[in-house]
Specification:
By secondary structure, the protein is mainly alpha-helical. The chain is 79% helix and 0% strand.
Length: 82
């Protein structure tokens, strides 16, 4: 079952919900996008700040995608240290 449309719809309606973004991260992992998932989990405060500044949702998601390889690696290293 593809839950992505429902997750993205929920995020669209409540962009600042950490719980929704954290629900999106496992979907990303389950669909081979581990770097993006790790970036969201580890760098949620930065994602939240970007959202709070009024950055359009599509741009926020593109920033996560564009920086996923670097941030995902750093996020996983951070998670392993915890």
């Amino acid at each position: 079952m593809n839950d992505l449309p429902a997750i993205l719809d929920a995020i669209t309606h409540d962009r600042e919900s950490e719980a929704l973004w954290r629900a999106y991260a496992p979907w990303l992992s389950d669909n081979g996008r581990d770097d993006e998932a790790a970036a969201i989990r580890a760098f949620w405060p930065a994602v939240a700040d970007t959202i709070a500044m009024g950055t359009p949702l599509a741009e926020v998601m593109e920033q996560v995608r564009a920086n996923a390889a670097r941030l995902g690696r750093m996020g996983r290293e951070s998670e392993e240290q915890c």
